[in-house]
Design goal:
Number of helices: 8
Largest sheet: none
Strand content: under 5%
Radius of gyration: 23 Å
Helix content: 55-70%
Number of strands: 0
Amino acid sequence: MKISVGLYGNNAHQIALAMIQGFNKHYTLFRQTSRQAKARFEQSDWTGVHRAVRERIRFYDDRVNECVERLRLEYDIGTIDDATWQQIKLLYIGLLLNHKQPELAETFFNSVTTKILDRTYFQNSFMFVRPTISTENLEADHAPTYRSYYADQSGLRGAIRAIVEDFQWHHRFADLERDAGHVYHAIRRFLNGKIGRAHSNSSH
């Protein structure tokens, strides 16, 4: 099914835009809260840490409910027919073509639609049962989201130490070797000591 040029600017297009705006708001707020985690840790703001965890969990549901309410108030979403819902999904896909988080945005779309549509609509014509946008070749516009660490020459203990050091803390650890050792031994206990000698790298 092709997207007609005439669909842009119509009700279906406005609904698709409202939904992607809802996701973008959620992701922006989530990122802002996550970026503050390092400062909370360095300041020993444990109350703030726990509050931020609760807020991050609540953020998603709040944004989904907020988006559903907007669609009901502005577009009388309960009266939308099947053909328009299919158009909404196709137009939403078009909005994801240059998006940096297409899979998360698809999940947000599903979360919103499951609060509006009957279960009989839970199929790929109206929702994202299968991912439509490949993330394999997306180019990031910021620093890498994650790094990989391997317990090779420096062993597991060294890998733990490298993970901690790469956070580039503003405050020095009182005894990083000791703390890395505590984490190492906790992992050994959890795995019942099943860590190879090549990965242990130093005394236990």
